[in-house]
Design a protein that fits this description.
Helices cover 29% and strands 21% of the residues. Strands 1, 11, 12, 13, 14, 15, 16, 17 and 18 form a nine-stranded mixed beta sheet that branches. Strands 2-3-4-5-6-8-9-10 form an eight-stranded parallel beta barrel, surrounded by six helices. Helix 6 runs parallel beside helix 7. Strand 4, helix 5 and strand 5 form a beta-alpha-beta unit. The chain is an alpha/beta fold. It contains twelve helices and 18 strands. It binds ligand LLP.
């Protein structure tokens, strides 16, 4: 069942139209609370980078990770400032361009380096800058091969073989090393995440250098279906805390423990709302066609991801087919001129179905658990404007991003 009140969703779409994104602030705060044992919670904003969501995070004492100049600018707009708190923003990447170097220097933003070329570039212009080392521990795990960020097939991080040389370069340049970071993949599980913390102890010993902090990276899973359990955050913290203690006794002083979730903080807190515009049957499928496409929610087309879909009966007296008789299982698809624009598909692109309660033209469909990598992965494909975002907080619905207009889209082409 959706975490949202269906009547509220109907009101939202009457006011703001469809498609639209909706978020629940209380759920985000609840998720933050589950990770309070960590010294620093750093939100991987790529999951949901709306500045109002970032402001909510900041008000809750959550720090932020940025992976582009744009994400740094968003953090600044949301009020993050490394002069107020030097831990506020960290920039993580495997390369750094000229514009971003200027930004990180200007705003004193530590750089989490994923390559030695990054290190050279930063040291050339800012020899005492603060850095983290993002290590690829030689293995990884994610909900899809596309979200696995460790091991020999990954472009991310400093390999174990390059670690001693990286540390030597940092020392040679006189850069300030904060700590060691690791992110094995997105949508992982407790078993692999616990392998990562064991690996971290060995990596700190291998690095053979003093550090002040370690970061677990992100990857904390959330349940998307009723078969999936919530992450046992107590065990997750305990495993990492044990690793931290071992590192502390090796180094002889205390070490801060950071966690860097994206999905975990916002995934279950958001939904995409769309309206049913057409019902169509083929020999194989009962299609429900809606006004949101993979330009809005890419995850099913990109990874075969499952989002539980629910129908909310809104106006049932529309023209067209009343319903597809006796059908229970539906394939849900969007308006894009591309046959892969289907929300119910597996990772190999085979169309599958979800059980929906008699959807009719004019009804709303709710795509649950779309708060992470939903709006933030949207595009303008087929010249479709970005959908608005609405935040529900303390019973109030607040528009936090307007719907983009076609004029906004073509304005850049007025040259
Ligand atoms: N830290 C780093 C360095 C990352 O690259 C990521 C995600 C995170 C943290 C946060 O990971 P999370 O806690 O959200 O799993 N588009 C994909 C996910 C790609 C994640 C990329 N990096 C999806 O829709 O599932």
């Amino acid at each position: 069942m959706t975490i949202f009140n269906p009547n509220t969703l109907v009101e939202i779409t009457q006011q703001f139209g469809t498609p639209a994104w909706v978020y629940d602030a209380a759920t985000i705060r609840q998720q933050i609370k589950q990770l309070r044992d960590f010294d620093v919670i750093r939100f991987a904003q790529k999951a949901c980078s709306n500045t109002h969501i970032l402001r909510l995070m900041r008000e809750e004492g959550v720090m932020v990770d940025a992976v582009s100049a744009g994400e740094i600018e968003r953090s600044l707009v949301a009020g993050y400032s490394n002069s107020d708190n030097p831990e506020s923003i960290v920039f993580t990447a495997d390369l750094i361009d000229r514009e971003t170097i200027e930004l990180v220097i200007q705003h004193d933003i530590p750089v989490n380096i994923g390559s030695m070329d990054m290190l050279h570039r930063i040291a050339e212009v800012a020899p005492h800058h603060s850095v983290w080392i993002r290590v690829n521990p030689g293995f990884g795990h994610g909900h899809s091969e596309k979200t696995n960020t460790g091991g020999p097939n990954s472009k991310h991080g400093i390999s174990l073989e390059d670690l001693p040389q990286t540390v030597a370069l940092i020392q040679q340049y006189g850069l300030d090393l904060i700590g060691i970071h690791m992110h094995i993949g997105s949508g992982s599980d407790l078993e692999h995440l616990s392998q990562a913390c064991q690996a971290m102890v060995g990596i700190v010993k291998l690095a053979n250098v003093d550090i002040r902090a370690i970061s677990t990276g992100g990857g904390l899973p959330i349940p998307y279906s009723s078969h999936e359990d919530k992450l046992d955050t107590m065990t997750f913290f305990r495993l990492w805390n044990d690793a931290r203690k071992e590192i502390e006794s090796h180094l002889g002083h205390s070490v801060k423990l950071e966690v860097e979730p994206g999905r975990y903080l916002v995934g279950n807190a958001g939904a995409l709302l769309a309206e049913v515009h057409c019902l169509k049957s083929t020999a194989e499928h009962n299609f429900v066609l809606i006004d949101a496409g993979f330009n809005d929610l890419l995850r099913p087309s990109m990874y075969g991801s499952y989002h539980k879909i629910e129908a909310v009966h809104q106006y049932s007296n529309q023209q067209g087919l009343e319903s597809i008789s006796n059908a229970l299982e539906y394939a849900v698809a969007g308006p894009l001129c591309e046959s892969g624009d289907v929300f119910t598909q597996d990772a190999s692109g085979v169309i599958c179905h979800q059980i929906l309660d008699n959807p009719k033209v004019g009804d709303l469909l709710v795509f649950n658990d779309a708060g992470a990598y939903g709006a933030s992965m949207s595009s303008n494909y087929n010249s479709r404007p970005l959908a608005p975002e609405i935040l529900i907080d303390d019973g109030q619905c607040r528009l936090i991003r307007k719907r983009q207009s076609i004029n906004d889209l073509v304005a850049l082409e007025m040259v």
